[in-house]
User: Which sequence fits this backbone?
């Protein structure tokens, strides 16, 4: 009898946990609301005090209103002009005469939702509710639904008015039948506001900076709803498909919106299936979606001088309205796990600007302005890592065939133009002979290790630092191994052998020159390799990520990385040893703050050498101790104070989101 009861109890408990787990998984694969806070009403064209929602690579976005009097979405925010400019506080503000004014003070609920598939906000009194929803049907077109529901016990008659006023910031309005055309005075972008079919054409009143239009009176029965649809399209040109979309969207809002929602659910599901077992709970599902949403908002479609889609580092910071080289490689690695085609596009966007000698510019912009595109320096070589990661996801040999000779040429460029003493060890440098550009080339602009650096001429338009950097040569070592793998895909045996032999030689050189046996750390050295630049920074664990260190060297690095007085801080694996007299954790940029990409390289390096528990401990701290990372409504930041956890610099930073995502995934090392 007791055995029977125990068996029944066991079966009950097993069933309970199976159902609970099933329900947990089912609930997990949903869009999580309000991971980022999109509420705000701009008070000037330059207002960047809150976040903007966009999707599908659009060059414009919207926010939910914070002003109680506003009944339309804030925006659009235009990302193709002046490093980001609000066109309007609300281009489409929908006012219902008499009803709204009379009941504005009686609001009992004012709510909003922001998620991967779109935005929504609601206002409610005891008598009525209005709701306003939007999503991106394409990169060029956003679609909106305005709905009013009658809670009263009697029929109501309403007179909606649609109105909008733009900032005087390089735009003007004009009417084209039932379209309101937005013209830019600085470039060839223009917008088309397609008003609801209910608008009376004869009622439209328009000037250069404002318009208004009446709708026919509408009767809404008790308990009934009435809705109308409109769209906003913004681009440099519209093909037939886009024009057809504009013309038909008012009749298929629900079908298009459902399609977008299904796309997002499929994306969420694919990411969750890839997540490591220890990160499979709601906290980390939430972070994964926040990372996806951050990348989505920074995604820009091919336009102007940018021939392929890619990602801004952050739309929220005015200097980041372009594509950067090593940002692009990092974005591509993360994006490869859920959209290999978009990842390919990000890689190709930078290689589109490769010069004949193999050089990749630091950053490029949409308008292709020579003085803006930065050819003064390049960035560390990580594109082969990106290409290999993409290939592992979709096996696209044609992409590898296309990109391999470009990556090989870029790899060879380093040895032709950044190896001052021709010893097979490269240096960071610049094309214009300035030290600041050489520091930019490292990606760690003001790092302490460069405080006493000087620049040396190599050849025309080629200059090197008078020091050799361990991270650069570790990246080049890793690139040789990735190039070997890519060559194998293409069956280029001589290149396989070449890169394998070069990697063997370089590994020995790195271990001999950059590793200090006395304290167990990898340092930059003088140009001749005879003296260490004894600054412990995040560059010291790149040999772990690249697989260069021996097991004993890795163990010595581990001890320093796990030391709470050095790198195991509250938000760990920051850019400079916490015991350094030059450590500046708050606002020090590369002189102390924690950059998630560098922490990622350290954690993945530890995992490569079998230090799983230590890597997981550091990952948890990196997630839970960085301000707002696990909190709804808080943006992912460019870097963090390693002591206090305070978020620093730009909001909505793409590579931080990319590397948080990579830390959660079951990534092959």
Assistant:
């Amino acid at each position: 009898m007791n055995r029977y009861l125990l068996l029944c109890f066991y079966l009950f408990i097993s069933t309970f946990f199976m159902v609970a787990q099933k329900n947990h998984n089912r609930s997990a694969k949903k869009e999580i609301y309000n991971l980022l806070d999109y509420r705000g009403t701009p008070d000037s064209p330059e207002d960047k005090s809150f976040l903007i929602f966009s999707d599908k690579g659009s060059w414009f976005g919207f926010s939910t209103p914070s002003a109680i009097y506003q009944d339309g979405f804030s925006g659009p925010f235009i990302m193709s002009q002046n490093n980001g400019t609000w066109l309007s506080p609300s281009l489409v503000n929908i006012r219902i005469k008499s009803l709204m004014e009379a009941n504005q003070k009686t609001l009992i609920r004012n709510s909003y939702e922001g998620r991967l598939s779109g935005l929504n906000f609601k206002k409610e009194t005891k008598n009525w509710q209005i709701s306003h929803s939007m999503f991106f049907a394409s990169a060029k077109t956003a679609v909106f639904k305005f709905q009013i529901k009658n809670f009263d016990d009697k029929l109501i008659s309403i007179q909606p008015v649609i109105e909008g006023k733009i900032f005087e910031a390089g735009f003007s309005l004009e009417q084209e039948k039932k379209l309101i055309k937005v013209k830019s005075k600085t470039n060839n972008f223009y917008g088309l506001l397609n008003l609801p079919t209910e608008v009376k054409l004869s009622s439209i009143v328009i000037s250069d900076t404002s318009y208004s239009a009446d709708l026919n009176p509408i009767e809404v029965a008790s308990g009934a709803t009435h809705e109308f649809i409109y769209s906003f399209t913004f681009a440099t040109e519209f093909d037939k498909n886009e024009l057809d979309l504009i013309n038909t969207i008012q009749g298929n809002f629900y079908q298009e919106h459902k399609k977008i929602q299904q796309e997002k659910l499929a994306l969420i599901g694919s990411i969750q299936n890839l997540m490591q077992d220890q990160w499979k709970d709601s906290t980390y599902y939430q972070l994964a979606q926040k990372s996806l949403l951050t990348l989505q908002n920074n995604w820009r479609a091919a336009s102007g001088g940018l021939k392929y889609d890619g990602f801004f580092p952050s739309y929220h910071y005015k200097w980041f309205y372009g594509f950067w080289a090593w940002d692009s490689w990092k974005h591509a690695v993360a994006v490869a796990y859920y959209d290999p085609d978009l990842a390919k596009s990000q890689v190709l966007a930078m290689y589109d600007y490769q010069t004949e000698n193999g050089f990749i510019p630091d950053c490029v912009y949409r308008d292709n302005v020579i003085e803006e595109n930065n050819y003064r320096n390049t960035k560390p070589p990580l594109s082969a890592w990106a290409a290999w990661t993409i290939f592992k996801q979709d096996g696209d040999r044609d992409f590898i065939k296309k990109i391999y000779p470009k990556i090989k040429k870029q790899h060879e460029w380093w040895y032709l133009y950044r190896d001052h003493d021709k010893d097979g060890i490269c240096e960071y440098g610049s094309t214009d002979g300035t030290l600041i550009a050489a520091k930019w080339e490292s990606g760690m602009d003001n790092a302490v290790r460069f405080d006493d650096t000087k620049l040396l001429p190599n050849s025309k338009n080629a200059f090197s630092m008078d020091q050799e950097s361990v991270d650069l040569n570790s990246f080049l070592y890793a690139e040789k191994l990735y190039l070997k793998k890519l060559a194998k895909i293409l069956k280029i045996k001589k290149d396989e052998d070449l890169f394998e032999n070069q990697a063997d030689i370089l590994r020995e050189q790195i271990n001999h020159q950059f590793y200090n046996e006395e304290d167990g750390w990898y340092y930059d050295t003088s140009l001749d390799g005879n003296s260490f630049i004894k600054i412990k920074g995040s560059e010291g664990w790149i040999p772990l990520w690249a697989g260069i260190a021996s097991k004993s060297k890795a163990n010595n690095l581990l001890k320093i990385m796990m030391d709470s007085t050095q790198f195991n801080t509250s938000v760990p694996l920051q850019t400079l040893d916490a015991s350094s007299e030059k450590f500046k954790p708050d606002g020090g940029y590369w002189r102390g703050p924690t950059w998630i990409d560098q922490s990622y390289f350290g954690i993945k390096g530890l995992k490569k050498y079998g230090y799983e528990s230590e890597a997981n401990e550091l990952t948890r701290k990196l997630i839970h101790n960085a301000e707002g990372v696990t909190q709804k409504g808080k943006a992912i930041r460019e870097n963090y104070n390693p002591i206090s956890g305070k978020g620093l610099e730009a909001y909505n930073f793409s590579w931080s989101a990319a590397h948080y995502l990579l830390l959660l995934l079951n990534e092959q090392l």
In short: DSSP finds 17 helices and 31 strands in the chain. The mean pLDDT is 92. The longest strand covers residues 225-235. Residues 54 and 368 are 23 Å apart (CA to CA).
